[in-house]
Design brief:
This is Homoserine kinase. It is a single chain. By secondary structure, this protein is of the alpha+beta class. The protein is built from 10 helices and 12 strands. The chain folds into 2 domains: 158 residues, Ribosomal Protein S5, domain 2 (2-Layer Sandwich), CATH 3.30.230; 125 residues, Alpha-Beta Plaits (2-Layer Sandwich).
Length: 294
């Protein structure tokens, strides 16, 4: 076996009114460095874990079992830049990493559709799985026998992430949402989602930012769980951001800034926030990738 590396990007789901359907791949990564070994070993975060106790390896074994193959012993070193429970799609990235590990070790030659279907089956929804697989902005949904998706890579914006120390479990953020929406309310919320997509495709980033901050599906109900929600949004807008939204369910927030202005806005925001990592991020346009290690 030639040593190889699997890299999977983080992702930001929802993007305001794109609730449970839109996801954006971000330039933070899980890396798996894989090499031949007589004995299987999985190194995560600097320590050795048995394969049966490691989430990514368990995913790989599920895929292998599904396709009737036995994975060869190997040494896997995991490193991750993606904070857990911050709304950056860490679980989806790990699932995609596990699927691709099985694909490579088992020579399964899985198609993109097969990877998306298996990842969605495990995660329960495709909004983070799709961008982790394909990169860029993805819009996806679930039909009875299909998971259609569309991709947009040509987004000319800088991104600034505000990552707090506090975690926010998805289950907690999900529980604060209403079970149903009144019809007229849902129609207005859906119109916001339609318009944000149209604004991105037409590169009307002023309109995109306006719609980003007018979500009706989830942010009005989750904002009370997010420290400094209004402060971050107002300060970022004052410093030149088009708009700011929760990343996924939170607790991270994400600002969209005119291309080339990201560093300036980031430095100004750093002075306004304590206890946050403020990061200037790229949009990942490749999704999961495999490269040879020399």
């Amino acid at each position: 076996m030639m040593p190889f590396r699997i890299s999977v990007p983080a992702s930001s789901a929802n993007l305001g009114p794109g609730f449970d359907s839109m996801g954006l791949a971000l330039g933070l990564y899980i890396h798996l460095d894989v090499e031949d070994s007589d004995q299987p070993a999985f190194f995560a975060h600097g320590s050795t874990e048995s394969e049966e106790n490691h989430f990514i390896w368990n995913i790989s074994e599920q895929v292998a079992k599904r396709y009737g193959v036995t994975l060869p012993p190997c040494k896997v070193q995991e490193t991750s830049e993606i904070p857990l429970a911050r709304g950056l799609g860490s679980s989806a990235s790990a699932i995609v990493a596990g699927i691709e590990l099985a694909n490579q070790l088992g020579n399964l030659q899985l198609t993109d559709d097969q990877k998306l279907a298996f990842g969605t089956e495990i995660e329960g929804h495709p909004d983070n799985i799709a961008p982790a697989l394909f990169g860029g902005l993805t819009i996806s949904t679930m039909l009875e026998d299909d998971i259609p998706s569309a991709q947009l890579n040509d987004i000319e914006l800088d991104l600034i992430a505000y990552i707090p120390k506090v975690e926010l479990k998805t289950e907690v953020a999900r529980d604060c949402l209403p079970d149903t929406y009144e019809r007229n309310y849902a129609a207005r919320a859906s119109a916001m989602s339609n318009l944000i997509v149209a604004a991105l495709y037409s590169k009307d980033y002023v309109l995109f930012g306006k719609m980003l901050e007018n979500d009706l599906f989830h942010e009005p109900f989750r904002k009370e769980l997010i420290s400094n929600f209004d402060v971050i949004r107002e300060k970022a807008k004052a410093f030149g951001a088009f708009g700011t939204a929760l990343s996924g369910a939170g607790s991270t927030m994400l600002s969209f800034v005119p291309k080339g202005n990201g560093s300036t806005v980031k430095e100004k925001m750093v002075t306004q926030l304590e206890g946050y990592q403020v990061k200037l991020l790229e949009i990942d346009t490749k999704g999961v990738s495999v490269s040879q290690n020399r």
